[in-house]
């Protein structure tokens, strides 16, 4: 019933806006406080890319410190002032760089930048809706995110520097301003920024869920939704359930910092001075943090999975293998992700029995992940693979997901985690499995839906260059880190110079830094391509990738309300590629079965006996005709 | 269009020139005072300055742009001759294959060269079990790693686009999907069961008797060690008793506190069960002794312990590694502030006899200064007790 209602609304909308939809749009309402989901998606994307570039530059700064711990770079002092006295980044600012790099990448780029962009752009377009359920809340979601970004970056202009306790901000380090400079005002700004961020994320998430559940077009039942929508839906559910817990944790931390409570603090003697805190537990914060933190890594990777599934299916000209299995594995990951957080805490002094339990749940979550990987491989098998840049990035995502996912089996094992915890092995693991894989999913999405967003195509050759340099660069950076971890080299170390046993890794550090610089410079190819193509790219056709999903039935020129006429009705699942008997190698979701009699399969009519009878009649007439001939 | 104008604009060019000059000047200005006199040095720095790298990058970009143009012209000329243009799908397919082969070699190289730079054999009883678990996991996962990556890039090459072919319509296959759900599930169950029992046997060590208690306390940015005296017991602690001379806040109302020893280096007798009592004073630290496969966070307000048995003495390890300077270390592995990267202590595993001799030379925790502070003469423990009780009652 709901679909019918939405449909009616759509018609009404069309009557109002169809012919003169530009009538009251000003610059401010179109580009700044826009309530059009497509514009909000673009706002998220461009803010996300800006934040990604900033976080990438931060990473290059600390990589330079790691590669050349003994050299001085006067330019750094010029740029960073007292954060880098005498041409060298200070130990505290090094930790700030690491912290803010992680925070921006995880939350601002891979959560808001990825989910924000593609949920906003794709949900209404792929399920056939005029806009989000609440366009106003959608707009607020972006502006809260923008505000959070500004607050986070403003901490670089605070005398004592940005937060520096690691992106996990474990108290007491983050709770005691005297423990390190970054735990002063910088930490306060970090906490404010995160509260704003979570508000943004919740408003977005509630919107995504309600839009998907209530505003699908006629015929679009849940099992006809593209995997992108499934992934974005489950991601939004995860976010809604997990993010409030982070706010709870953060608010208690604010209390401890500013109002003298002892939620996380007990028995502390700082610099020889006894502190008045008693009865709290630092472990409590870790539980609260990772209750969000672990679902968070799936919030980061699931949209990338959905995007890659869609792009790989389109460009191998094959249906995604095991659509149902793909959906069920996403659901499995969603549910399991709530009961694995303890694997971040095996060696925190948590009860060892609890560690054992979390180990079991953690290794179970590898099963749906494995199913997804095998299904992607099966999708490629006997395909007819077109190498668009989007396809290459989707493949890169799969490759990283395999490489990084497998090392997760080591870390999820409590016994092995004893020695690997907090070493470079962990750094390598999550940078591959959630960092690189998710950013590749995001880039794949940008290349694939760029024509939908801007009406123009990006340059393919520059895309190829961008892909190979980034892909090879990421492996060169993160592969050697596994072995550093296996040698017991801890992460977040300012320099390896103080340990005789670690000095053998200095040359490899230099190598990693240069690989990172190469990969970072490769992003210039992307940025140039992205910006220039917005204004001067080749004009796109309506359906440049010959894809089945609904967004390619909208006109190239954007209009508020998406479709000029009625919203199209959906008749089939989105993956009818290369169906035997069909004229073309793709059949859009809007084509009814009655128009494709030659390619229909009995399987298409599982819950539609009338259709099946029709098909049988068609087949028997075909046979009869053959006999006549 | 607008962009072409922008790129060709003279203003932008002159800005760029100004930036280059400025960048170089800046660097010169910064380095000259710092340089140690010789003009040669300044010159060298100048050459490897920022502007130099920026220029280099622009040259590379120009080169790439030139290659792009050449490819485009070649492509166009092919089309003019009536042939099909460059088949980028084939080019990419071949690059995928090249990447696969190079990547396989790279992974092999990394495993052999960098793999041999990793930690030596475990120097503790439970460490051997951890290493067995590690080997099993490595064999299983690396098999999957190589097979899936070969399939992934192999498929990309083999099934690259061709106009003559249509993809094989295969939406699902329940049998094969069941297989690749059940097989990983079984393999992971094996790993879980092994892992669970290994973990339990390492951590669930309450019943192990006869261990040597050693107290290790972390603070910014060092470790404090405390050994028990003749009674084999460590005195209890209370953070409220912490003073400059009673750094750990040991409670001297208890008899067991009086003979405690403090130490600079962690000496451990070989083949004896050790119980490390771990705590932190200010922020979270982590006691990390990778050679023994020992790690546990040091959390303020949450005393924990880790039991293990070292099996290889420092001397033995030195000869095995052929490295006369080798030392076991304990260092911090949880971000704890600016000095986090240098919070280490040497650990020496020695024979029982050496251990006993070493122990004799350790200073008592109850130093003269501390005695004075607690207001008692050497032989009057009774008085202190009442004193401290008063303090506690406050």
Span between N and C termini of chain A? 48 Å
CATH architecture of the domain at 1-11 and 34-225 in chain A: Up-down Bundle
Uncertain runs of chain A are 1-21
Strand content of chain A: under 5%
Secondary structure category of chain B: alpha+beta
User: Count the strands of chain B?
Assistant: 11
CATH topology of the largest domain in chain B: Immunoglobulin-like
Classify the secondary structure makeup of chain A into a structural class: mainly alpha
Strand and helix order of chain B: HHHHHHHEEEEEEEEHEEHEHH
CATH class assignment of the largest domain in chain B: Mainly Beta
Indicate the CATH architecture of the largest domain in chain B: Sandwich
Brief description of this entry?
The complex is a heterodimer of chains A (about 625) and B (about 400). By secondary structure, chain A is an all-alpha fold. Chain A has helices at about 1-15, 25-30, 35-65, 75-80, 90-125, 135-155, 185-215, 225-260, 280-315, 325-335, 350-365, 365-380, 390-410, 415-420, 425-455, 460-485, 505-535, 610-629; strands at about 270, 275, 455, 540.
What's the structural blueprint in terms of helices and strands?
The complex is a heterodimer of chains A (629) and B (394).
Chain A: H1 2-17, H2 27-32, H3 37-67, H4 74-80, H5 91-127, H6 135-154, H7 185-214, H8 227-258, E1 269-270, E2 273-274, H9 282-316, H10 323-336, H11 352-364, H12 366-380, H13 389-411, H14 414-420, H15 424-454, E3 456-457, H16 460-486, H17 506-536, E4 538-539, H18 609-628
Antiparallel strand pairs in A: 1-2, 3-4
Helix pairs in contact in A: 3-5, 3-6, 3-17, 5-6, 5-7, 5-8, 5-9, 5-15, 6-7, 7-8, 8-9, 8-10, 9-13, 9-15, 10-12, 12-13, 13-15, 13-16, 15-16, 16-17
Chain B: H1 2-8, H2 10-34, H3 39-47, H4 50-80, H5 88-114, H6 125-158, H7 174-203, E1 212-219, E2 222-227, E3 261-263, E4 266-269, E5 274-280, E6 285-289, E7 294-298, E8 304-308, H8 314-321, E9 328-332, E10 344-350, H9 352-360, E11 363-364, H10 368-373, H11 381-393
Parallel strand pairs in B: 1-5, 4-10
Antiparallel strand pairs in B: 1-2, 2-3, 3-11, 5-8, 6-7, 6-9, 9-10
Helix pairs in contact in B: 2-4, 5-6, 6-7
